[in-house]
Amino acid sequence: MGYREYIKECLGSDPSKNSVEEAYKVLPTMMKHDTEDGKKENYNAIRDHFRAIDEEFYREHQELYLPKAALYLLSLIDTMSVMSQEIFEHYKYFESLYKKVLCIALSNYSEETCMLADRLDVPVGGGNPPDIAGSFMISYAILKGCRMKAVLAEKYLGIGKAMYEAAAAMAAEEDLTGMPQEMHLAYEEYQRAL
């Protein structure tokens, strides 16, 4: 099965495939192909897919974990980055979802550690250690959101930079070499923000 067939299968599938993992793998690529082909015929399907994911996401995650929230933010910001802003109502819809998830993700952001913990409903510390990979992903989403003007840079740019720097320092301290993808994504946006 080719990638386009896989994407169409995911878009037409039952709710079990409405997961953040599937969204991150499929929807930004689908949006990019749809925008580049110039037809934009699947924008409504992609929006409906995100709507279903959003409903499922908040219903199932009373205890919200950082990796899920980070993947959801990444799928939203990466989808927004490749879509046509001329389709204003869709762009604004994705932007509103992005802002909602970002507020939840940053609800227990610690200015002391500049990191996020694995469980977002509990502050860092006390058995809830910082999540380095998740913090890299969130910093990427924040920095890219600032660059795209999806959120105010005056409010969020400092948080995104500080989170990247703290996660990079902790990764170097713990000699984590198995995390290059998250770190490289965040590093690219960090360099653009400087």
Task: Explain the overall architecture.
With 194 residues, the protein is mainly alpha-helical. It has one domain (3-193): Glycosyltransferase, CATH 1.50.10. The chain contains eight helices and no strands. The longest helix is centred in the C-terminal third of the chain and has 21 residues, at 153-173. The radius of gyration is 17 Å and the shape is globular. It starts with a helix and ends with a helix. 39% of the residues are buried. The model has no long low-confidence stretch (mean pLDDT 81).
Give the SSE map.
Blueprint: H1 3-11, H2 20-36, H3 43-60, H4 66-82, H5 88-105, H6 132-147, H7 153-173, H8 180-193
Helix pairs in contact: 1-2, 2-3, 2-4, 3-5, 4-5, 4-6, 6-7, 6-8, 7-8
Supply the key terms.
194 residues, Glycosyltransferase, 0% strand
- Please state roughly what percent of the residues sit in beta strands, choosing from under 5%, 5-15%, 15-25%, 25-35%, 35-45% or over 45%: under 5%
- How would you characterize the largest beta sheet? none
CATH architecture: Alpha/alpha barrel
From the 3D structure, determine the CATH topology. Answer: Glycosyltransferase
Alpha-carbon Rg, integer: 17 Å
* CATH secondary-structure class: Mainly Alpha
What form results from the Cα inertia axes?
globular
Secondary-structure-based class equals mainly alpha
- Measure the end-to-end span: 42 Å
Helices and strands, in N-to-C order?
Answer: HHHHHHHH
Domain unit count: 1
The low-confidence runs, each spanning 5 or more residues with pLDDT under 50, are none
- The mean pLDDT is 81
Q: Helical region count?
A: 8
Instruction: Report the strand count.
Output: 0
Helix content: 55-70%
